[in-house]
């Protein structure tokens, strides 16, 4: 790292502002190049798709239908804000395109998109920094690791059958912890993004 | 019957080893019933669900059951009940023949509720034969039960005990574990719901037996991927329904038998009995005893719907197959019959399908008859 940040212990406010600025710069820089954009788009879409599969909102019909079909509930606005579980809300539409069907739950989509964008951007910065000349011990795995709790939160819904697959029996403590997976994922992703951004040297990258 | 873990410890507690109570995680078989005049409040809120005169056996103290209840991961009504179901003639349904359905007949009106829909809603508040009722299903214990609901409706509390759905009634907010049919918390605590028989069968069998019936459709007021059971598949068997593991800890674990094998269970105020369903369908007649009170019981199979019926009997009575029906011998007389499986001149006891682990968890001292078989839905 060439350009130093303020000391986090001596001037924490200035340090934090510096980290945020440097991260914002790193994100802009990453998305300005093709590798970064492709990484962000692929990872964001892939992560969101996995999140939707985990929730059971995206999957195959099991049939051989080829038509496009959509069913919308009677009162989508009121339905959209009905909470089913922590960070999960009622779907308002079922869309089937051939053998694929998708349940559209607007608020849940917002949560999933937030997680997916954070993972996508973090990995984009990581990849660009790793491939660029200003690399500074940034591992691309950091963003992926931070996204795991978010994915688990999707699979942990409605059952949580993921525990059966994992061979773990639910306890009151574990079930309570599952409630916090989404906030933990967001916090972890933001922290990872700031950490990754802080490793980028604006002078070297520009 | 032998059980392991907490139930075994609980037996010591029941024998008076009070010092062990702190080690039991709150689970202590009591040998009691749902009767407790001190708890049941006669002046509960208007519109409370109607209650039964005869209680059901409770093997555990109600406080222990509340202590052992867990947040299932969804909030109250996070699994929404269906309060305005729609139906179509069963003969017009395009469900595959072996799709599981829950059949109900009341006052001549026949309806069926597909398992694929109830896996996503667990409770349907409906009217059958002019009576307001609720048909309920817990996927994790494989139990489908019907309750009279009066002017109120039932909802999913979001909590579980012994993996079993805890319902709540919207008039008093009391908690009703489905299998127990007894309130364990709230103003109705100690009261027992009025139950009626729900038959777990297939759409083809129901269509054949009751071509006049209607079948609940996917038009529930909600959108769900009804073709996707979040827990597994019954035909072919897969997922949770086939696995030996459970997601939530049972109140007690039987030492033998596949946890997800299906039993036809029945309980009275004084005891419970379980008949392995597949064995019953093979042998047609099984005898057992309600435990712990020791009353004799007999179960007969109904091949038409691949189900069975349970009767309280007497030691000198014998039931045996005769053609499609059953002969009853004893009671100081020669053979009577043949009788239809639902028409034996004995005291019929309401029966329900249940996963073996769930039944044995709620009734660790239950009587058992038949051979333990594998997971599935008892056929």
Question: What does the secondary structure layout of this molecule look like, with pairings?
Answer:
The complex is a heterodimer of chains A (206) and B (379).
Chain A: H1 12-32, H2 34-55, E1 58-60, E2 68-72, H3 76-80, E3 83-85, E4 88-89, E5 93-97, E6 100-104, H4 106-131, H5 141-155, H6 162-166, H7 172-178, H8 181-198, H9 202-205
Helix pairs in contact in A: 1-2, 1-4, 1-8, 2-4, 2-5, 4-5, 4-8, 5-8
Chain B: E1 3-4, H1 5-14, E2 29-33, E3 57-60, H2 62-68, E4 70-71, E5 87-89, E6 100-106, E7 109-114, H3 115-121, E8 123-128, E9 131-138, E10 143-148, E11 154-161, E12 164-169, E13 175-177, E14 195-196, E15 199-202, H4 203-209, E16 214-216, E17 232-234, E18 237-239, E19 253-254, E20 262-267, E21 271-276, H5 277-283, E22 285-292, E23 295-302, E24 307-312, E25 318-322, E26 325-330, E27 333-339, E28 347-349, E29 351-355, H6 356-362, E30 367-369
Parallel strand pairs in B: 7-16, 21-30
Antiparallel strand pairs in B: 1-19, 2-3, 4-11, 5-16, 6-7, 6-15, 8-9, 9-10, 10-14, 11-12, 12-13, 17-18, 20-21, 20-29, 21-22, 22-23, 23-24, 24-28, 25-26, 26-27
Structure report:
The complex is a heterodimer of chains A (206) and B (379). Chain A has 206 residues and is of the alpha+beta class. Chain A contains nine helices and six strands. Chain A is globular and about 60 Å long. Chain B has six helices and 30 strands. The model of chain B is unreliable at 1-26 and 34-38 (pLDDT under 50). In chain B, strands 20, 21, 22, 23, 24, 28, 29 and 30 form an eight-stranded mixed sheet that branches. The radius of gyration of chain B is 20 Å and the shape is globular. Chain B has 379 residues and is mainly beta. Chain B has helices spanning 5-14, 62-68, 115-121, 203-209, 277-283, 356-362; strands at 3-4, 29-33, 57-60, 70-71, 87-89, 100-106, 109-114, 123-128, 131-138, 143-148, 154-161, 164-169, 175-177, 195-196, 199-202, 214-216, 232-234, 237-239, 253-254, 262-267, 271-276, 285-292, 295-302, 307-312, 318-322, 325-330, 333-339, 347-349, 351-355, 367-369. Helices cover 12% and strands 39% of the residues of chain B. Classes of the chains: A alpha+beta (206), B mainly beta (379). Chains A and B meet through strand 3 and helix 7 of A and strand 4 of B.
């Amino acid at each position: 790292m060439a350009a130093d940040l303020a000391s986090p212990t001596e001037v924490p406010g200035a340090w934090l502002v510096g980290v945020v600025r440097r991260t914002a710069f790193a994100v802009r820089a990453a998305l300005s190049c093709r590798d970064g954009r492709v990484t962000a788009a692929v990872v964001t879409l892939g992560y969101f798709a996995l999140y939707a599969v985990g929730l059971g909102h995206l999957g195959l019909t099991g049939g051989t239908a080829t038509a496009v079909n959509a069913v919308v509930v009677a009162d989508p606005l009121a339905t959209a804000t009905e909470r089913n579980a922590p960070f999960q809300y009622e779907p308002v539409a079922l869309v089937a395109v051939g053998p694929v069907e998708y349940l559209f739950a607007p608020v849940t989509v917002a949560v999933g998109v937030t997680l997916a964008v954070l993972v996508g951007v973090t990995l984009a910065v990581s990849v660009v920094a790793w491939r660029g000349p200003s690399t500074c011990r940034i591992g691309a795995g950091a963003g992926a690791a931070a996204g795991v709790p978010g994915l688990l939160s999707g699979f942990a819904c409605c059952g949580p059958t993921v525990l059966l697959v994992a061979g773990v029996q639910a306890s009151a403590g574990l079930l309570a912890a599952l409630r916090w997976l989404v906030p933990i994922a967001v916090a972890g992703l933001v922290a990872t993004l700031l950490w990754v951004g802080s490793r980028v040297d604006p002078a070297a990258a520009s | 019957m032998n059980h392991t873990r907490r139930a075994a410890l609980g037996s010591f507690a029941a024998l008076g080893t009070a010092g062990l109570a702190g080690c039991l995680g709150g689970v202590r078989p009591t040998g009691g019933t749902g009767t407790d005049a001190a708890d049941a409040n006669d002046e509960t809120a208007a519109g409370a669900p109607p209650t039964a005169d005869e209680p059901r056996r409770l093997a555990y103290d109600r406080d222990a059951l509340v202590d052992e209840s867990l947040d299932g991961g969804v909030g109250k009504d996070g699994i929404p009940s269906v309060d305005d179901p729609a139906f179509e003639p069963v003969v017009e349904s395009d469900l595959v023949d072996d799709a599981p359905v829950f059949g109900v007949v009341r006052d001549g009106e026949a309806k069926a509720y597909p398992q694929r829909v109830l896996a996503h809603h667990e409770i349907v508040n409906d009217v059958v034969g002019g009576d307001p009722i609720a048909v309920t299903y817990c996927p994790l214990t494989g139990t489908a039960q019907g309750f009279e609901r009066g002017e109120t409706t039932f909802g999913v509390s979001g909590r579980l005990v012994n993996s079993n759905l805890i319902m709540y009634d919207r008039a008093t907010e009391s908690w009703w574990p489905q299998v127990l049919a007894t309130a364990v918390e709230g103003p109705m605590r100690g009261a027992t719901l009025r139950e009626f028989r729900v038959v777990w069968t297939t759409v083809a069998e129901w269509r054949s037996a009751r071509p006049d019936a209607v079948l609940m459709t996917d038009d529930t007021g909600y959108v769900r991927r009804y073709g996707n059971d979040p827990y597994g598949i019954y035909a072919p068997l897969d997922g949770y329904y086939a696995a030996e593991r459970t997601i939530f800890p049972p109140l007690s674990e039987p030492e033998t038998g596949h946890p997800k094998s299906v039993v036809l269970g029945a309980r009275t105020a004084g005891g419970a009995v379980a008949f392995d369903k597949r064995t019953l369908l093979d042998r047609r007649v099984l005898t057992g005893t309600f435990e712990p009170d020791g009353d004799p019981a007999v179960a007969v199979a109904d091949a038409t719907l691949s189900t069975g019926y349970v009767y309280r009997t007497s030691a000198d009575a014998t039931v045996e197959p005769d053609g499609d029906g059953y002969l009853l011998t004893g009671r100081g007389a020669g053979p009577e019959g043949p009788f239809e499986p639902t028409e034996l001149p004995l005291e019929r006891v309401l029966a329900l399908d249940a996963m073996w682990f769930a039944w044995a968890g709620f009734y660790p001292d239950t009587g058992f008859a038949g051979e333990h078989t594998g997971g599935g839905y008892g056929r």
